[in-house]
Amino acid sequence: MITGAQLRAARALLRWSAKETAKRSGVALTTVQRLEQEDGVPGGRSQTLLELQRALEAAGVEFVGTPDQAPGVRLVRVAKS
Q1: For residues 31 and 77, is the Cβ–Cβ distance under 8 A?
Q2: Is the distance from CB of 40 to CB of 25 less than 8 angstroms?
Q3: Cβ(35)–Cβ(48) under 8 Å?
Q4: For residue 58, is pLDDT > 70?
Q5: Per-residue model confidence (pLDDT) at position 16
Q6: Each residue of 45-70: b (16+ CB within 10 Å) or e?
């Protein structure tokens, strides 16, 4: 699972707006915004987090660590738009 802070950081690395993230992941904009504000692993459907994670990974973000130990993100490649 990924954390709200990782979601925010991943989006910042890609220079995606919350609206762009919602569009690319198929997750509602309000859901993206809500999940990003939560500390630790956001509550809600795990499928929603997986959809966000897949979209961000497809764009070149790698999620590192665990929610409890050194959670982070890094850009491993720049995806073609």
Answers
A1: no
A2: no
A3: yes
A4: yes
A5: 97
A6: eeebbebbbebbeebbbebeeeeeee
Residue pLDDT, tens place only, 21-45: 999 999 999 999 999 999 888 887 8
CA 68/CA 27 separation, integer angstroms: 25
Token pair 């790698």 is found at 62
Residue 81 has pLDDT above 60, yes or no: no
Q: Kindly report the length of the chain.
A: 81
Residue whose C-alpha is closest to residue 10's, from 54, 66, 70: 54
User: The pTM is what?
Assistant: 0.89
Token digits of residue 58: 């497809």
Whether the CB-CB separation of 37 and 31 falls below 8 Å is answered with no
Confidence of residue 77 (pLDDT cuts 50, 70, 90): confident
